[in-house]
Amino acid sequence: MAAVSSWNLVFTRPSRQRSLSSSSSSSSSALSWARSLPSFPSKSHLRFAPGASRTASPTVLSLLDAKPTVLVTEKLGEAGLDLLRAFANVDCSYNLSPEELCTKISLCDALIVRSGTRVTREVFESSGGRLKVVGRAGVGIDNVDVSAATEHGCLVVNAPAANTIAAAEHGIALLASMARNIAQADASVKAGKWQRNKYVGVSLVAKTLAIMGFGKVGSEVARRAKGLGMHVIVHDPYAPADRARAIGVEMVSFDEAISTADFISLHMPLTPATSKVLNDEVFAKMKKGVRIVNVARGGVIDEEALLRALDSGIVAQAALDVFTEEPPPQDSKLVQHENVTVTPHLGASTTEAQEGVAIEIADAVIRALKGELAATAVNAPMVPAEVISELTPYVDLAEKLGRLATQLVAGGSGIKSVKVGFASARGPDDLDTRLLRAMVTKGLIEPISSVFVNLVNADFTAKQRGLRITEERIVLDGSPENPLEYIQVQIANVESKFASSMSESGEISVEGKVKDGKPHLTKVGSFGVDVSLEGSLILCRQIDQPGMIGKVGGILGEENVNVNYMSVGRTAPGKQAIMTIGVDEEPSRETLMAIGEIPDIEEFVFLKL
Ligand SMILES: NC(=O)C1=CN([C@@H]2O[C@H](COP(=O)(O)OP(=O)(O)OC[C@H]3O[C@@H](n4cnc5c(N)ncnc54)[C@H](O)[C@@H]3O)[C@@H](O)[C@H]2O)C=CC1
Ligand SMILES: O=C(O)C(=O)COP(=O)(O)O
């Protein structure tokens, strides 16, 4: 007999090899789809911030009441804070330096920011895995390193709807006040002057307004501008044409928009593609005397190019709420320019919008901390509530099949290619499998690594480990009463600890279905089995003969290991059979070795779910 290591026992007999293995796995409490998301940690996650006192820190002490901690780094409406306080310890710390934020974050489960906090990769790295959700109390997420969040399994949610009207109204306010020199005239009167000839404005009616970015804010600006009698054209490569038809505006190309407009209003997000989209070359194509409004992001304009365009008269006026650097330098020539009207990023700053945004983000963060899927997730699939409730039992099944399959791989094989089959009578468009695939990935990876996998980082983690997961849809006949008939997980190009788990085509293959709301294993390799996926499992291959169940059951009984389920699947009477035994407790190594010693058992494996 080969040497016995602590978690991987291999028995070899002259005529055949049998294996008995156990792989470590994370706890298997009542599972639900919620486990696919980062949820509020247990006390074992409590840790001290670097340099924090282990006895005196009130923040550390407050953690001991097992409520999650939410750090709010910018002003948030009271209604949202009240919701958060009912669920969590809320730490409102404004004006933190980047270093202070990195120190504090290791004590926080959630972070809520607005546009003034940069949530960098360092923030996620400093959190030591505790940060589960970043809530952006507003729309733009350009200040959050979403890739770093995803890599760390941290959900990012925003509040995309509550400040739309405020931003649109601010855009219209800037448009009108720019056209009529309101800010300059106000300053002039307050300085004791009365310059009626200097501040003659331009009219809006019948002028062409080009809206760049026809999303939520852009659409509302379009509606309002039409009400002012303007001719509105829009440019947005991704907006649906029926939205333009519904509002009664014309969709045009980028070049047409910028070359025919009297006014240009920017409403696209800041992305690598939109960065400095208004630059020298583009200003050169504009109508002389064009007027520009920016309530989107400073970075979509090359600010130095804008200054040149203002000085040369191509741009007559600009009204800016947002800047590349916020606040902009005091001596900024752009800010000081006499034809430029500025506001300090006030687009979302109305009482109504701030209350709405605060409630929206508090709700999303609380849901995320409870492990629920957020409707406004930025870096995870948004799965509608009805789909979630329908898929809940299959989520558990998917993770357990992944766990089983990965534990069947013989050490050193290295998993590279996994195929997940979804058998359903539903049409492919009628079944959202993203959540299930993430859970199979979780099951595959977690038992063999220290990585925490969830819906947010499943695809990233698989890719990083060189694990290719493909999906196959097995279309069944019949009426689609259930979303899924069975799920199949196959690992190719590996050896198995349990040879009988190999399918005829040479992959490790396990299959399961949901029965009475519970996950069941229904096939291992080409053997049909039927065992509820609870507790742990022993799979044995033997020559089909009477008395085998009794022998194995007897050994387990002697050690008080409760057998919760047993099933035998065989190729033909008297030939090979697979006995599947579900056990509540984990048998000792001695017990497992005693089972391995039963002469007619050819191979067996112990698997933790
Ligand atoms: N100043 C402020 O306080 C506020 C600023 N904002 C900013 O306004 C912008 C728009 O916000 P929402 O309308 O809520 O977002 P949204 O996501 O509803 O709309 C953005 C639109 O821009 C389009 N777009 C993307 N790339 C584009 C490109 N290269 N050219 C043209 N269009 C492009 C998208 O297809 C989308 O339709 C965001 O940058 C947001 O951060 C939003 C609220 C307040
Ligand atoms: O929602 C947005 O994108 C905004 O720009 C609003 O920013 P704020 O939350 O006011 O810092």
From TrEMBL:
Positions of the ACT domain: 537-609
One biological process term in Gene Ontology: L-serine biosynthetic process
Alphabetical list of Gene3D superfamilies matching this protein: 3.30.70.260, D-3-phosphoglycerate dehydrogenase, domain 3 (3.30.1330.90), NAD(P)-binding Rossmann-like Domain (3.40.50.720)
Places the protein is found: Plastid, Chloroplast
InterPro entries on file: ACT-like_dom_sf (IPR045865), ACT_dom (IPR002912), Ado_hCys_hydrolase_NAD-bd (IPR015878), ASB_dom_sf (IPR029009), D-isomer_2_OHA_DH_cat_dom (IPR006139), D-isomer_DH_CS (IPR029753), D-isomer_DH_CS1 (IPR029752), D-isomer_DH_NAD-bd (IPR006140)
One GO cellular component term noted in the UniProt record for this chain: chloroplast
Catalytic activity: (2R)-3-phosphoglycerate + NAD(+) = 3-phosphooxypyruvate + NADH + H(+)
EC number(s) stated in the UniProt entry for this protein: 1.1.1.95
A Gene Ontology molecular function term of the record: NAD binding
Superkingdom: Eukaryota
Top enzyme category: oxidoreductase
The entry's keywords: Amino-acid biosynthesis, Chloroplast, NAD, Oxidoreductase, Plastid, Serine biosynthesis, Transit peptide
Pathway in which the depicted protein is active: Amino-acid biosynthesis; L-serine biosynthesis; L-serine from 3-phospho-D-glycerate: step 1/3
Entries under PROSITE patterns matching the protein: ACT (PS51671), D_2_HYDROXYACID_DH_1 (PS00065), D_2_HYDROXYACID_DH_2 (PS00670), D_2_HYDROXYACID_DH_3 (PS00671)
Protein family (similarity comment): Belongs to the D-isomer specific 2-hydroxyacid dehydrogenase family.
Protein name: D-3-phosphoglycerate dehydrogenase
Organism for this UniProt entry: Eucalyptus globulus (Tasmanian blue gum)
